């Protein structure tokens, strides 16, 4: 299982939000590239980066910060936030992003995901963000009438690399990952699932590790607040 340390970007700063609320942001630093390098020094081989401003704007806002991260981190960077057309997908992949995460466009324009997954095997991830079991879009500001499982099943035959499942109600709150909902989604589809939202400590890593179909876990606030040691989490996940 892969551990993805998270770097969320707002106005060029490293932040964490509570339940995806931009008004409830905690700033953890103003040098995203240095944060990426620190995660690399702790043993991280993968990063999960989100352009939060881009998620609301529908286009890249923190491109300069992302470029700095790509230069300072030798591992694989997975990027989401405002990637809603083919030009954005191509631009980021060409710049060296290993995988792009598509959320809003996956619901509104599934053909975009299918075509991109066909042309870029292993490099397209679909975000399945849930509020009470229903898909949330546009930076989690809107909630659809589509269930997370229904959305995931739409891409069973599309060749996407993974599904990124986030329980929005737990994100950034250190309530503990919704292990059961994540595992249920992994059992419902053949696509690998990445867990996200609410990771509190090493117990969450133990709970997720070894579960069928779960490819990885994203953690942010627990690392920044010192509740989770990244090297220990990576070691547990590797076992």
Q: Your description of this structure?
A:
The protein has 239 residues and is α/β, with parallel strands linked by helices. It has eleven helices and twelve strands. The chain starts with a strand and ends with a helix. It has a single domain, classed as TIM Barrel (Alpha-Beta Barrel), CATH 3.20.20.70. The longest helix has 10 residues, at 32-41. A hairpin with a 2-residue loop joins strand 7 (124-131) and strand 8. It is globular and about 40 Å long. Helix 1 packs parallel to helix 3 and helix 9 (202-208) packs parallel to helix 11. The chain has an eight-stranded parallel β-barrel with strand order 1-4-5-6-7-10-11-12, surrounded by six helices. The chain has helices at 32-41, 52-57, 63-72, 86-95, 104-108, 110-119, 148-153, 179-188, 202-208, 221-224, 230-238; strands at residues 2-10, 13-18, 21-29, 46-51, 76-80, 99-102, 124-131, 134-137, 142-147, 162-167, 193-196, 214-219.
Summarize the structure.
The chain is 36% helix and 31% strand.
